[in-house]
Write the structure tokens for this entry.
Amino acid sequence: MNEEILRFTDVMLIYHTKRGETVAAEHLTFSVQKGEFVAIIGPSGCGKTTLLSLAAGLLKPSEGVVESKGSFGYMLQKDELFPWRTIEKNIFLPLEIKKQNTAEHRERARALAEKYGLKDFLLDYPSQLSGGMRQRAALIRTLATDPDILLLDEPFSALDYQTRLNVTEDVAQIIRSEKKTALLITHDISEAISLADRVLVLTKRPAHVAYAHEMDFGDVKNPLKRRERPQFSGWFELLWRELNE
Amino acid sequence: MKKPNCTAEHAQYLRKRKRKLVVVWILRIGLLALVLGIWEAVTALGWADPFLTSSPSRIFTTLKGLYDDGSLFYHIGITLAETLVGFLIAVVLGCTVALALWWSDTLRRVLEPYIVVLNALPKIALGPLIIIWFGTGSEAIVFMTVLVGLIVAIMHMLTAFIATDTNKILLLRSMGASKMQILRKLVLPSSLSSFISMLKVNVGMAWIGSIMGEYIVSRAGLGYLIVYGGQVFKLDLVMSATVVLCLLAAGMYFLVVLLEKILVKNAES
């Protein structure tokens, strides 16, 4: 279990625009262990999405090192399913991109979709599905290439509250049962507490990790159950204070 | 969608819709008949001079005359061929150039001001040049048609390509997609509806180009008939050629709509 799969060491990132340069992150250091679920929260505009782009290798740090062992799957705020493709074809998309579009890989992806309740929707188009179902399809698409690390960029924030609780539950269960490592970026404190093994709090720009907390819910992994625990509100208050410092 | 069990209320709703559609069609045809009827009556009663206004019956007679001496389809064929060839060249070339401009940011920024100027330029100003370069045959007219449609096609498609959802591009890039894959899997399919609307606009552009071209140089075609009819004061001929033009333009537009129905089965959600 104690095997590092992703590590940021003293990372600095500078953004260049015509009007000048912005230091988005400085002395940013943290690591993610294999099988761990890490949530990162931060004040708005602190460059949370930038951090995922760095992790996925879409951006190069100006200074410092980003090391990772393994492949990534990226999940965005909206499901970003392609409306002209069926759910099945959407799920096969990363296979096509990575040139792994073999019968074996397709079968694996299809089995995953069937296992998590998308069996009857495979030949439907995204517009025929509810928001929650679409986000589930987006997760299965992310899992289709069997990535080692999931990068989740506020994947629930576009959903209404009721759906969000259900989908969070869903996604947590799927990620846990597939034994994936996950790095979640969110501005929602309760979402971070209810999902993660560890919560990191970022500062304002230039962002670095101000606090790190292990969540002490023991074996309670279920997001809704966690919300009912007595220590939940304690964590919420603490993180709220740290965020507003 | 599964067929729902039809309740009485739903059946009534469907009947209402159908009735409304029938009424609209009756009114449409009625309007046409009314206009034609008044036109005919006004000339027949001597209130208007058919020498100046022509009339439906005279148009019919003129068309029949053209048909009988075999020149109707000769002129239609020439104009239609010029329009279609010009339209196809403009569309294919326009899409190709737009793709190149999407691909290379530098190229786009270099060419942008030229495209804007060419778009604003009234193409008819190039008439004399076209005659000198291409002579007085169909080539000149096709060139004019391409000229009118090309810039519109480029600008329309480039706008569509650039408007591709950046989050979807980010998603593909996170999967490790190459620029070619982004183009094929995302940019082209998401531009389909813009492509169709560009075709619709360019149908109109192509007819403007070919008729304008025939006004400048030509010895045959519908545009030629209109100019010739005007010069010798045969307004029956002018009107007849215009009517045929209306029918052809409408026909071509509906072909594009048909293409749209075939291609766009699952449009944006």
Remarks:
- Residues 51-268 of chain B form a domain with the MetI-like fold fold (CATH 1.10.3720.10).
- Chain B has two domains: 8-48, 51-268.
